[in-house]
Amino acid sequence: MKPEIKLHDKTFVPFIPYEKIIAAIDQVAEKLNADYKDSEVPPVLLCILNGSIMFTGELMKRLDFNCELISMKVSSYDGTESTGKIRQVMGLTGSLKGKRVIIVEDIVDTGNTIDSLVSIARGEGATDVKVCSMLLKPDVYKKNIPIDYVAMRIPNDFIVGFGLDYNDLGRNYKDIYVLKQ
Ligand code: 5GP
Ligand code: MG
Description:
The protein has three helices and ten strands. It is α/β, with parallel strands linked by helices. The site of magnesium ion (MG) has 4 residues, from β6.
């Protein structure tokens, strides 16, 4: 892990090492394997670009049931603040009609994004919608939608790495870093 990384005007310091992230993903994958092993229709993993790319990749290779992968891209963050407005930047790459959907997100903060995503998935005809997030900020989350699978819970800090960015930089780092105070 680097002692710090600089992205634009901000400095980030180590927060969650890769090994810990992987151990948490192992656990979530185990739960999904138990819950979906007898699924009659192969569920769809709905990867929310770009933040969820690395998490979806690590998660998928641990799943031992048949599943599909569909992606879409939304945006709600501007810098380090959630704007509350969700923009659909790239539509669904496949149909959700009649499918069981597992939304795979990088992080759930206020919950605005996941709220919209669940509505979109239902509106597209998904029969069952579950949420799997790598990270959850429980102190900030204010929606009633259950976050069915969570790998790690963190305080209300702004983090980058393992797919997460600060204004488009930082996604490539395999460890998670937090904004230096
Ligand atoms: P929400 O709509 O739940 O407030 O925010 C969810 C989205 O905001 C996430 O999908 C993610 O893209 C972004 N986000 C929330 N918290 C963080 C954070 O700490 N770091 C980064 N890089 N993005 C975040
Ligand atoms: Mg995201």
